[in-house]
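Changelog note: in this version the structure field was regenerated for every chain. One regenerated record is shown below for reference.
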Amino acid sequence: MLLDIAEVSQRSGLAPSALRFYERKGLITADGRNGLRRAYRAETLDRLALISCARDAGFTLAEIAGFLRARPSDTELRERMAAKEREVGERVDQLTRLRDSLRHAAVCEHDPLVECPEFKQAVRRAR
C-alpha cells in the first residue's frame, strides 16, 4: 500500500519539503507516484519516526544516514553508536537532575527560593 506525500506529511508531522529533502539525502525512498505526487510505502512512517527521534537526540543527518546503512560487521560505526549512547545517557542523567530541581522548586516555600539549601544542592547536582 502506497501513501501519498500529503498523507505521509500529515501522519509524520513533517512538511512535504522535509520529506523531499530526506529523499535527496538518501534517508527515505519514494516507491512510486500518485499522479504527479510522490508516494511512499507505509513503512516509511517508521523510518521517519526513527529519523525524528534521532534528530531530537542530537544526531546529524550524516550520522543518521550511517546508522540506517549499518551492518553487523561495521565495527567503526558501532563504536560511534556506543559513544553516542554514552553521550545521550549523560544528557538523560543531567535532565533528570534538572527535573528533580524544578520539581522541588515548584513546591518549596523557602523565602527566597534561591536560598533554600535543598534547592541549592539540587542545582549543584544538576550541573
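Spot check on this record: The two ends are 49 Å apart (CA to CA). Strands lie at 2-4, 32-34, 37-41.
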